[in-house]
Amino acid sequence: MKLNGKKITLGVTGAVSAYKALELTRLLVKEEASVWPVMTKSASEFITPLSLSTLACARVSTTLFGGSGGIDHIRLAQEADLIIVAPATANIMGKAAGGIADDLLSTLIMAATAPVLFAPSMNSAMWGNTAMKENIEKLKKRGCLFVGPSYGPLACGYEGAGRLADVAVILEAAKEALDKKDLKGEKVLVSAGPTREAIDPVRFVSNASSGRMGYAIARAAKRRGAEVVLVSGPTYLPEPEGVTFVKVSTAEEMGEACVRYFPQSTVVVMAAAVADYRPLKSSPTKMKKEAKTLAVEMERTMDVLKNLGKRKKNGQFLVGFALETDNLEENARKKLSDKNLDIVVGNSPWGLDSETNEVTLITQGSHAERLPAMEKNDLADIILDAVVRLKAG
């Protein structure tokens, strides 16, 4: 989901983590959102309005009185698609919970018709305070949204809960707040990444899959209201927020995990690049470099996708990927039939370790749609759009 055309009011309050609002602003603008920045007086002690204004390409509003005739709070509150408060201090959330409107930011929160997303940032003792907990519950009951805080080192020198969520996580929460919820009620199982089949304790057979496609699908499904399980082989990607994350290594482990979660799943997207073969024998100790040549006898692994296709029942929707170097459509159609799929996504190896991919979507009935190269985040939504459309008949 892109944020292009969305009007986002970004409120920045007086926390040490206010500097991260600059990076959040940059990311929002990169997503083509219109950012309307608002700063409290305390926030300006940590970052300058000029810095925020430069990144937002918009004037920073700081006061109720001045600028555009003293009605900024109405425009910023009621014309916005989303209000993000990041960082959100205990003070601003206490004001919002108590209905206090004594500055521009607290006043526009009171006047808001758009969703309000708070990203808390404070000392762990403040976050755990009873009054803070009560204020959070009040705000949640009124429909306010929250992202974070996370656990980690704090500015005060202590470690604990209260750290501002990573800006990428806040961005994802903003997308979720604005995204359509056409997968609400669905239980989505996604596989991602490569598998590793051990030769010895330090060597293995694997492939170049980065896991980006599966992770993008898991994030998109979560944004669109689904309950998501992500079964992932080894990757260097951060674990997506708000999903059940199952980490595996081998094809056998991935197969077992997918079988475990398959019965309760309504939509299954198998984006993992599962090894077709594994060493027949794995050495328990590191193999020494002695012989000039080395032959490793291989055996077939479990066909995870075909196994799920055999288990598929009415009401379950199964999507598979077909990576081909030649005769892509022909081979993908064969996979669609042989493995009892509803959609097969045909792609070539160049998209394996890339942020983009170029694919052909083939559905039952042999309809094929060749898509242009695009970012995997965008492709994830297109695949899910096809799932929703075909499930609806």
Overview of this structure, please?
The protein has 393 residues and is α/β, with parallel strands linked by helices. It folds into 2 domains: 7-178, Flavin prenyltransferase-like (Rossmann fold), CATH 3.40.50.1950; 187-391, Rossmann fold (3-Layer(aba) Sandwich), CATH 3.40.50.10300. The protein is built from 13 helices and 21 strands. The protein has helices at 20-30, 49-56, 72-78, 90-98, 104-110, 124-127, 130-141, 167-178, 212-223, 251-261, 304-311, 328-338, 376-391, and strands at 7-12, 34-39, 82-88, 116-120, 145-146, 150-153, 159-163, 187-192, 197-200, 203-205, 227-232, 244-247, 267-270, 277-279, 298-300, 317-323, 343-347, 356-357, 359-363, 368-370, 374-375. The protein has an 8-stranded mixed beta sheet with strand order 12-11-8-13-16-17-19-20, with helices on both faces. The longest helix has 16 residues, at 376-391. The two termini are 24 Å apart. The mean pLDDT is 91.
CATH fold label of the largest domain: Rossmann fold
Q: Assign the CATH architecture of the largest domain.
A: 3-Layer(aba) Sandwich
**Poorly predicted tracts of residues:** none
User: How are strands sequenced across the largest beta sheet?
Assistant: 12-11-8-13-16-17-19-20
Number of helices: 13
What's the Cα radius of gyration?
Answer: 25 Å
Distance between the termini: 24 Å
Q: Mind telling me the CATH class of the largest domain?
A: Alpha Beta
Total DSSP E strands:
21
How many discrete structural domains?
A: 2
The computed structural class is alpha/beta
Mean pLDDT: 91
Biggest pleated sheet: 8 strands, mixed
CATH homolog superfamily of the largest domain: CoaB-like
